[in-house]
Amino acid sequence: MVKKRNNTVRILLKPSALILAMAAVSNVYAQSADAQSLGTIEVVGVGQAASMNAALREQKASDSISSVVHADAIGQLPDDNAAEALQRLPGVSIERDQGEGRFVSVRGLDADLNAVTINGTLVPAPEAKRRGVALDVLPSELVQSLAVIKTLTPDLDANSLGGTVQVNSLSAFDHKGLFYTGSAEGAYNDLRNKYSPKFSGAISNRFNIFGGEDNFGFAAALSYQNRKFGSDNVETGGAWNGQALDKISMRYYDIQRERLGAGLNFDWRNESSQYYLRTLYSRFVDTETRNALNAKFDNSCLANAICSGKATRALKSREEAQNIQSYVFGGKQQLGLWVAEGQIAYSQAEEKDPRGISAAEYTGKFKNLSYQDTVKPVFSADASLYDPKSFALNSIKEKEESSRDKEKNIKLDFTRDYSIYNYSSQFKFGAKVSQREKTNDENAWSYKKLKGGADFYGNADYSLGQFGPFINTGNVEDRLKGLNSDQNIDRQLSVVNDFKSREDINAAYFMNSIDIHDWRIIAGLRFEDTHKSANGFAYKDGDVSPTTAKQRYSHWLPNLSLRYEIDKQTLLRAAYTNTVVRPTFAQSSPGMKVDMLEAEFGNPQLKPLTSHNLDLSIERYFGTAGTISANIFYKKINNFIYKTDVAGQGVWRDFEEAETYKNGEHANLYGLEFAYSQKMDGLSAPWNGLIWGINTTISHSDEKIKEMGSQRTTSFPSQAKFVGNAMLGWEGEHLGLKFSANYKTPALYELAAVNQPNLDIYNDRQLFVDFSSYFNMTKNLKLKFDVANITNEKYYAYTGNKALNAQYETYGPTYKLGITYTNF
């Protein structure tokens, strides 16, 4: 173990030497190019370099180690939502759903361990069981800037282990005078041959009121997209018995994702006051039709063998609607020597799944099932497998679900500038009261012993192999019309996932900053007191009873941040911070399901995860869009949470399976982030139009899990050891071209039992390559052409070793053509 860690440290130190050498090179270049400090750069135009300059200026001025991307840069990439825009930043990777960015991972930590704020207030999660916010619900057009804060100061919520994603929407004070823009875009998905429209627009302006000059402004933004696409999939879910398979599922998806986003913001300012109102609404409707052809073998089946078993054609047809609303009213007021800042915020996220078909299954028996490939285990048989007459209706299941997550908070901060021995200092203290309530209600119906089977049509154009006919959704719905749903309710599923959870957090802090020559020192302490309560249900062999749970705990969180200005373009930063993250709602659920000798339940007494964090970074800024930086970080995480089987212990002694969640002792995460970007405007034409950038994150994690006398060390789920981005482009007065790539190595996806590491599921490495371009037809009118996923990169997950499929999915490239008019 020690030898392995030393090797890892050497790996991390080698790039550090390279970074210092490159910093010296950049210094020479900056002097020869007569580079200016970023503090004096005026952002003009809408090119990639100008956007990067604006983001770097914010990053340099921050008291935290952070990464920033601005609206113009987002608009010049083929990214459909905020999650995809964030993947370009150092230390950030994303989890994809159907090939589209969804959840954001920071420094290899799962989205549930990070926080998302919109205009300074926490965003609750639409999904019933999660804390992580799926940022695909937020259209990128509503965003003015995105920042990932990796070292928190005491005045920020401490609820993130990897980082806090800050989403800022448009303000009238982001532009001078009247600003408006509008875009229209059409996209084509190659896999399903479908076209998708997209429209967006924004406007802002300033006015003179109450005798002031340009002191009041409003900004509005609107975005609509109706994306139609699909995917082809084959998966086993890890159902391997050695080299043999127990079951396979081939899936054909038709998907429509409709996004509507709107924001309306107001600002008023004078010499001593600033007040604002920020509003944001986002609606995301995901309509999915999934046809599946499943095989369940009578006995575990080897590749190239002829096996018998049951084949099932299954339909899932559902609509999932997610809404996020955020309202923030706040301001800043000069009170003599003090500055008071306050904010009142309300946010709500909800997900509604109207009653839909969760499974309609038609089954048949076959004696000649086989598959040839363990990576893409598409199975086949004789012609009868593709004949609708071979399948008879077995069952239909329906489900509806509604979850809501509300967060209300009030915070107040006081700041005073003063001097100590002629050194500029600032003292700041404040408090925050927040209340969060999450509810979930699920109902399910199951209809069995049904007759008939002539509900098929057509033939699926399935890119991975022969699939056969589709199930007719309308025919299935017609069958349900004559059935009594009250007599077919699934009592277990209709109660076990219902819950109401409340979480109140009261926080207070103080901090002091002082500037001593080239040093800036920030020291402070934050206190957070948490009250939790939850109500749910226990289902035990047909009997239902209510459950309740309560918990209270508090944390003192010290903080020290140092910033040293080596010269006007070079900064050295160091930070010691402490953070705390509560368990997810699934992990701490009071619900319980007991069926015969199998049980599944949450653990309401789980301890929160806490982390001691050390960060050290060096940043060099030069030229146009030029920066080079390196960050080294270490996190010691206490009370990490993992899923486990406690069958055979205590009250579960006689059970075959009893799955729940448990706290581990401590885990370690450490790594190196490196970023470099530059526009080569010091070169002669046409090479002065070149712009390029790279960033990488190398990390390592280990956590020790124990159960029933067995133990092993593993990495965190979702933590890739290497994540990298690269961008190479050229931009001139009228034309811009750019290739961008996003890469990450394999990462643990799902942890198996302690004594079965061969059944762990991993996400394989991925490399997504995108192309974007623009042509300025006039000063205000721009034509864009983008290609997302040029190389048709797949998603692949494997079980234990790379040859054994857990899931294989392909999406095809997407081509986009758009036009934008901007007045600025």
Note the main attributes of this structure:
22-stranded antiparallel β-barrel; 824 residues; single chain; Maltoporin, Chain A; 60% strand; 6 helices
What does this structure look like?
The chain has a 22-stranded antiparallel barrel. It has one domain: Maltoporin, Chain A (Beta Barrel). The model is unreliable at 1-46 (pLDDT under 50). Helix content is 8%, strand content 60%. The longest helix has 31 residues, at 2-32. A hairpin with a 2-residue loop joins strand 21 and strand 22 (519-540). It is mainly beta and 824 residues long.
How would you concisely characterize the structure shown here?
The protein is mainly beta. The protein has 6 helices and 42 strands.
Q: Identify low-pLDDT runs.
A: 1-46
Summarize model confidence as the mean pLDDT. 88
Question: How far is it from the N-terminal to the C-terminal residue, by CA?
Answer: 59 Å
What's the number of domains? 1
Remind me, CATH topology? Maltoporin, Chain A
CATH homologous superfamily descriptor: TonB-dependent receptor, beta-barrel domain
In the CATH hierarchy, what is the class? Mainly Beta
**Helix fraction bin:** under 10%
Count of DSSP E strands? 42
